[in-house]
From TrEMBL:
InterPro entries: P-loop_NTPase, T2SS/T4SS_dom, T4SS_GSP_E_ATPase. Residues 85-365 form the Bacterial type II secretion system protein E domain. Belongs to the GSP E family. GO terms for molecular function: ATP hydrolysis activity. Gene3D superfamilies: 3.30.450.380, P-loop containing nucleotide triphosphate hydrolases (3.40.50.300). This is Pilus assembly protein CpaF. Pfam families: T2SSE. It comes from Pandoraea thiooxydans.
Length: 453
């Protein structure tokens, strides 16, 4: 076992050497000249055929040039060249790794990845910035997006559902900056998040009841806190008979629901024409007979249309927003509405927000990388020109006797105020501290003390 680990470490070490890059670059030039001789025939080859071609050419190349490398190093270079010709070069393995959530490239020789919410430096590098740009343009080619000096920033959705953001010179000073956000092929369900410890059984029960009772919910949190994953999971509680319209700037949601209409905003053309905003899509969605509207991220003028939809027959709609706390979430809604040109008074805006939003679910990424629901706050109305809220659950981390950090959620003993949850309150009262089976809320106590996890 230790021999295998040493062998893998040696391989990784060789891949970081200048010798590896020099041999690979020279071999790449040799392969390109051979491909040029083959012409159009090469374009019809499968990946397996390309792998065989590279292996044969590398054996010949190393023998004729008397390159001083062993068989293992030769195979390593051949594998890298196959990825170069048929895939995405140095980052192909990262793109295929299901544990990798984000790939962050700061120039050709500085790559970080996020696994389980924790950023780590990755021993991967490109030959130079031109090599990096070549791979990026290969990723962009099927999408038809342009990346050059006249258009030095690109934000695009990848064919597999991921998201790519690229900034190049002259805006990026130290070389191309590439950010790739990957998404799971099988989105997490509420039971998965429960098993991962993102919340406990009582919160599961409340969220299930709130979604089914058509409560409007905003998921609030910071970057990479798990907002989209939680929103995906919440949507699985929506009854199958309802029609759901999702609206996003870059399509990321993948709802486990049989009747979903997905819409994505469009950036303007090179002359600034043809732009279709999230605000335009929300307006149009109202003519599409939606039961619920889900906005991937609320961050602009669309906040007015979203609140109007929630207040005019589209209860149960949901969305995410960048904010550090439930109160900050409300402040941000006010600010965005002001920027959007809201014409009424401050008091009328707050009444509209309070009547539109029922719950704010605050989610965060802890220092350990764990993603947890930090609080569930209900919006109860307006009092003295201030939006009133009550916190139903609060997350607390504690150190167990064995020294391990664990989670618990403290139930603050307050019943949800919303009349939409009247049946849920009655069931909870009738069952004491536990929600009875058949309530459609997943079981677990509601008004008891928070459980440890």
């Amino acid at each position: 076992m230790s021999d295998a680990i040493e062998f893998a470490d040696d391989n990784r070490a060789f891949a970081q050497t200048q010798q590896f890059q020099d041999i690979k670059n020279a071999a790449h030039e040799h392969l390109l000249s051979r491909i040029e001789e083959l012409g159009a025939e090469f374009g019809r080859w499968t990946r397996g055929a390309i792998q065989q071609f590279v292996d044969l050419e590398m054996d010949s190349f190393a023998r004729l040039r008397r390159i001083p490398i062993n068989e293992s190093e030769l195979r390593q270079i051949a594998d890298a060249l196959t990825k170069e010709l048929a895939g995405f070069g140095p980052i192909e393995d990262l793109l295929n790794d299901p544990l990798v959530e984000d790939i962050l490239i700061n120039g050709y020789n500085d790559v970080y990845v996020s696994r389980h919410g924790v950023l780590q430096h990755e021993p991967v590098r490109f030959a130079d910035n031109q090599h990096l740009l070549r791979i990026v343009r290969r990723i962009l080619a099927p999408i038809g997006r342009r990346l050059d000096e006249s258009n030095p920033m690109v934000d695009a959705r990848l064919p597999d559902g991921g998201r790519l953001n690229v900034v190049i010179e002259p805006l990026a000073v130290d070389g191309p900056v590439v950010s790739i956000r990957k998404f799971r092929k099988d989105p997490l369900k509420p039971a998965d998040l429960l098993a991962l410890g993102s919340f406990n059984e009582e919160i599961y029960a409340l969220l299930d009841a709130a979604v089914k009772a058509r409560c409007s919910i905003l998921v609030s949190g910071g970057t990479s806190s798990g907002k989209t994953s939680l929103l995906n999971a919440l949507a699985s509680f929506i009854p199958n008979a309802e029609r759901v319209v999702t609206i996003e700037d870059t399509a990321e949601l993948s709802l486990a629901h049989p009747h979903v209409v997905r819409m994505e905003a469009r950036q303007g053309g090179y002359e600034g024409t043809g732009e279709v905003t999230i605000r335009d899509l929300i307006r149009n969605s109202l003519r599409m007979r939606p039961d619920r509207i889900i906005v991937g991220e609320v961050r602009g003028a669309e906040v007015l249309e979203m609140m109007q939809a929630m207040n005019t027959g589209h209860e149960g709609s949901m969305g995410t927003i960048h904010a550090n706390s439930p109160r900050e979430c409300l402040y941000r809604l006010e600010m965005l509405a002001g920027f959007a040109g809201f014409q009424g008074s401050e008091a009328s805006l707050r009444r509209q927000i309070a009547s539109a939003i029922d719950f704010i679910v605050q989610i965060g990424r802890l220092s350990s990388g764990r993603r947890r629901i930090l609080s569930i706050t209900e919006v109860t109305g307006v009092s003295d020109a201030v939006i009133s809220t009550q916190e139903l659950y609060r997350h607390e981390a504690y150190i167990a006797p064995d020294g391990e950090e664990k989670d618990r959620w403290v139930a603050l003993g307050i019943q949800p105020h919303s009349p939409k949850l009247q049946r849920f309150r009655e069931l909870a009262r009738g069952a004491g501290s536990a929600v009875p089976d058949g309530a459609g809320v997943g079981g677990g106590g509601f008004f008891g003390r928070g459980r440890n996890k």
